[in-house]
Amino acid sequence: MLNKINDLVEKVQQFHADSAESIEQFRLKFLSKKGEISLLFDEFRNVPAEMKKQVGVEINRLKQLAQQKYDEATQQIENIVSDSDKHDLTRPGEAFEMGTRHPISLVKNEIIDIFSRIGFTVAEGPEVEDDWHVFSAMNFPLEHPARDMQDTFFVEKASNNEPNPHDILLRTHTSSVQSRIMEKRQPPIRMIFPGRVFRNEAISARAHCIFHQVEGLYVAENVSFADLKQTLLYFSKEMFGPDTKIRLRPSYFPFTEPSAEMDVSCTICGGKGCNICKGTGWLEILGCGMVDPNVLENCGIDSKKYTGFAFGMGVERIAMLKYQVRDLRLYFENDIRFLRQFKSAY
Ligand code: PHE
After folding, report:
1. Looking at domain 103-342, which CATH architecture does it have?
2. Phi and psi dihedrals of 38, rounded to 5?
3. What global pTM score does this model have?
């Protein structure tokens, strides 16, 4: 009897499943009611009492082994079947959804595209900057409130807490890239600088502590305020449509002289007055001016020979006007239902 069991153990061990059919044969031969193992249990009745214990253990071991072999083989066959299923080349393809670009990227890319058509190239600068490039080189007086802790996120501040050109901070505007570029190269410079900026402000529908700007800089011989106006009018018509008008209001920035803020005629009502433009017919979109000679000199450019203009616009602001989004926070939450609505060539 023990010999017979050993024989069967060997056969079970040698079994190799190559098809669903051979597995079924294995089951019939060993595990079915009329199979070899059942027969052994029948014979077991005739085994002498003193052998029963040993033979019982062996039969059970054989039965377990056969069951295990069977389970493994069925599992293997199932895997092969589902694998070949995956590779069924006759199956129709599954449709997948196209993603969309973030509206801020769309508007940024469109701004870059518009300016590249009139010869502006693109550069970027660091988000973690020093005081020199953000403020000092840009002609901010040491006591200027924009250097104040309230507006600026500092990374490393001088120990006496006084403003210091070596302070490390998160840039509060992309104008810092102006000083970086002008230190490195001589005119003519005709470039735009897109990037993220950081200000310590409470988050609301109209303000955020992180936002995006695109800075423009043109320095060469005989650059005039008229060039600035014409460039910005071209940009506004390209961005908001050919009927768009612009208006410049005198303003102040430490790094431009004279300085102005620019409005475009309201993109919603066309200038008649509505609740978006608060009845004025105008929307403010950027700050601009002639580069202050002090800034040119701070960066090693001869202010007797060269003049320049600069402007800086808020990308969120332009996106809000273009897409009529009323709450700035939507740009940062990345709610897929919001993002899906933006499809564009950019
Ligand atoms: N840096 C200014 C701001 O962040 C914008 C600006 C840029 C104004 C260039 C004039 C010239 O508000």
Report:
1. 2-Layer Sandwich (3.30)
2. -60, -45
3. 0.73
